Amino acid sequence: MFGSARDISFIKKINTELMENIIQQEVDYYKYYLQETKGTDSDNLYGEASSQKTYYTAVRLTCLLERGDQAYVQDDQFGVDVTQQMTFNFLKPKLREINLVPSAGDIVEVRGLYYELDQINENQFILGKDNDYGKSVGTEFGESLSIICIGHYTRATRLQITKARY
Amino acid sequence: MNIAIWQGSSSFSPGNTPFGYYDYDTEFQTNADKVAKWCALRMGYPIMDVEMQDKNFYAAFEEAITEFSTQVNMYNARDYMLSLVGTPTSNELSGRVISTNLGRTIELAKQYGNEAGSGGNVNWKKGYIDLVPDQQIYDLNTLWSDVMESGSRIEVKRVFHDFSPAIVRYFDPYVGTGAGTQQMLDSFGWGSYSPAVSFLVMPLYADLLRIQAIEMSDMIRKSSYTFELRNNQLTMYPIPTFPVKVWFEYVVESERNNPLKYATGSISDLSNVPYNRVQFGSIKDIGLRWINNYTLALCKEMLGLIRNKYSSVPIPGAEATLNGADLIAQGREDKTALLTDLKELLLSMGRQAQMEQEAAISTAMQLQLNKVPTYIYIK
């Protein structure tokens, strides 16, 4: 039968080799640290964290990048602004190894640029099966292969991750 | 589940091959890891992962040795089959020089000797029937095979039924009597000497002419002594007038037709020719090189089969196409080429090819020697 644990192990190895040894696109992933994130002030009505978001220390990950073109937006009041969409294709088994669950609001750094994740998609399953929900075929068959995250470019000054001005 | 793949090195231990033919051969143990490493390197490791384990390499190595051994043994068996058939299967032929002989050729010729009565391996037996006056037809089944051969079918080869030989009806020519010779001796004046024939040398043709004359007289003037044998019915000519035994020779058909003349445990065909697997330690450079290359070809095919189960592998957000089909094709192509080379090499080393080569060398040498100036002797 196709898609058993041996097959999945093989597919994961191919993926790992491809992503870590051949393509080697690396990003630093900053996980949003909710507990340490506070609002601007204690009387903020909704507890929004507009300026004091906190992140875990970055972890370096391999992924497949799909870069969107930079889009320039003309603002009559402030001038030209730029934005860019970036898609990060992560190998889920690798994320599982470090116990990382991507979620919206996390930050990914590529080439010194920071992208805030907006969408988290998990829809790619080996042979269409997910061993976490094996039902009648059991846990030996299938696996969720990827988590595809779509983010947008965000200014470093907003994140307080790195010193943006000297 | 995490299935390990090749890590760059291995450590062979007995039991790691499917059949274990060579597991305890120290040469094999040493070479197994080296060959595994070499094959992995030839397939791209460490630049590329090789999705195989040490056992895959060992299996290919074992198969390559066995294939080499089988090919060598097959060609040996084919070359010497004529000399080997019928010899005991208990002989161990591997690594032995086979002395050829004509035994089997003569054995094949024996069946003609059987029929011609000039040898063979079927007994010609003797039997007889008692002729009864005035009875012309005799049933050999009833009279002989039912009684003496338990009803087995017999085939009569020869019937001893003829005139008395002419020589017994011709007075001894050495005695010189009975042919009017005495008168001739008398006329020479030697008749009173005894034995007078001592003084006379008769030409041999005289005897032959007399004998031929007697036989021709029998044939023309008398009833012919002959017989007809049809479906076990022996018809005698002339009709017997007095009781006499007629002898005949025959074979029992079941004995002649018996194809199992050899004892059990004899070599019969390719399946039981006692060529066993060649010991790996005894294989030298030519064979080792072939084995290594064949191992690599098997590994390519194996890796191709592994990668070709999913010719297209999903990767995050896309798909990657693997080179399984290419590896399979290349592995099989290499295997075919190696086998063809080996077969041609073995064929060229067969007895027939070697003798043809020797003959060609001899002819070429003679041509060369003909160019050498020879002395001219002038007296």
Which structural class do the helices and strands of chain A define? alpha+beta
Topology of chain A as a string of helices (H) and strands (E): HEEEHEEE
Low-confidence stretches of chain A: none
Major sheet attributes of chain B: 3 strands, antiparallel
The largest interface is: A-B, 30 and 18 residues
| Residue-averaged pLDDT of chain A | 86
What does this structure look like?
The complex is a heterodimer of chains A (166) and B (379). Chain A is α+β, with helices and mostly antiparallel strands. Chain A has two helices and six strands; from the N terminus they run αβββαβββ. The N and C termini of chain A lie far apart (60 Å). Chain B is an alpha+beta fold. Helix content of chain B is 45%, strand content 12%. In chain B, the strands form three sheets. Chain B has a three-stranded antiparallel sheet with strand order 1-6-3. Chain B is elongated, with a radius of gyration of 40 Å. Chain A binds chain B through residues 2, 5-11, 13-15, 17-19, 21, 63-64, 66, 87, 89-92, 124, 126, 140, 145-148, and chain B through 1-3, 5, 48-49, 51, 306, 309-310, 313-318, 320, 322.
Key phrases:
heterodimer, A: 166 residues, alpha+beta, six-stranded antiparallel barrel, 15% helix, elongated, B: 379 residues, three-stranded antiparallel sheet
